[in-house]
Amino acid sequence: MRGALIYGAYGYTGELVLEQALATGLRPVLAGRNAAAVEALAARHGLEARVFGLEDPAALDRGLAGIGAVAHCAGPFSRTALPMAEACLRNRVHYLDITGEIAVFEDLHGLDARARAAGITLLPGSGFDVVPSDCLAAHLARRLPGATSLALGFQSTGRVSRGTATTMVENLHRGGWVRRGGRLTPVPAGWRARTIDFGAGPVHAMTIPWGDVATAWHSTGIPDVEVYLAVPPTARAAARLSNLVRPLLATRVVQSLLLRRVRAGAPGPSAERRARSACLLWGEARAPRGRVVARLRVPDGYTHTAHAAVAVLERLLAGGAAAGFQTPSRAFGPDFVLQLPGVSRTDDPTEES
């Protein structure tokens, strides 16, 4: 069996994925563009290091020689996903990443026919976003066949890494997205608010443009999808204010200033902080004659990403997913998330109208 490669293994989340891979007995090849970082990390663990960027297709092809599956952990994925996915197509290597970006999911969905022809799986979103929420969406669709609308919500006690913050900054000017009638539809930032009970009482939440706006449609066929994040009311006010200055947020000066502040911070939450954190997910599906609600509790998002990405990697290496573009629930079923450490799910009774 050909082996695994982790690209971007020296990044904050990449190292967590590596630690989990080693804990399960995998001995992946480590790769990235930073020679010093890759080689030092590989030497520390007695692993093979490969140094290559994503701009040179020939270098990418050499880097993927003898590899069966790539865990792509180097964002922002809006810039890095397609070059790596194209290389995986050329070399017949399974692909997974840990993105949560709508555009990336749609771009890789566009490669579905080529992936099926090559006999490989493309499985973006193999981390916190979107493994638990995608499985929750599929579970709700299973409970309520014929559902016409889906809402998903997140509440987290953790903080984000530099990589996640970088992606957020680079997308500040893009506003929000929902799905209507099966079509991706732009909306203003902070477009809609609602009160959600994640299990400990109602909290304020607002719409956000997270990856499930793309993936939940592919997984369930439910035509109307909204995604919410629990935030204080002041955060929604700030989001709505950002709609007035979106062109300014896209300028090089503002982007440079915000990214400089991101890079000055810590790479990500400490192990102690992650151990104290948890993420709560809520989902609601509606049909003309009914409504279902379910909730998930998962560990800190970065810890869960490491668990999920390595579980997906192991399955891809074993040939356990169909060829083509896949979502987590399409590849492994709605209950896949329950096989990961520290995850629990509860269902409210079905409501009929």
Q: What does the model show?
A:
There is one protein chain. This protein has helices at 12-23, 35-45, 57-63, 77-91, 102-109, 112-118, 131-143, 162-170, 212-220, 233-242, 246-249, 252-263, 271-276, 301-317, 328-332; strands spanning 3-7, 29-32, 49-51, 67-72, 94-97, 121-123, 149-156, 176-180, 183-187, 193-197, 202-207, 224-230, 278-287, 290-299, 324-325, 344-347, 351-352. It starts with a strand and ends with a strand. Strands 7, 10, 11, 12, 13, 14, 16 and 17 form an eight-stranded mixed beta sheet that branches. It is an alpha/beta fold and 353 residues long. Helix 7 (131-143) runs parallel beside helix 9 (212-220). The protein has 15 helices and 17 strands. The mean pLDDT is 91. A hairpin with a 4-residue loop joins strand 10 (193-197) and strand 11 (202-207). The protein folds into two domains: 3-128 and 303-333, NAD(P)-binding Rossmann-like Domain (Rossmann fold, 3-Layer(aba) Sandwich), CATH 3.40.50.720; 131-301 and 339-352, Dihydrodipicolinate Reductase, domain 2 (2-Layer Sandwich), CATH 3.30.360.10. The longest helix is centred in the last third of the chain and has 17 residues, at 301-317. The chain is 41% helix and 25% strand.
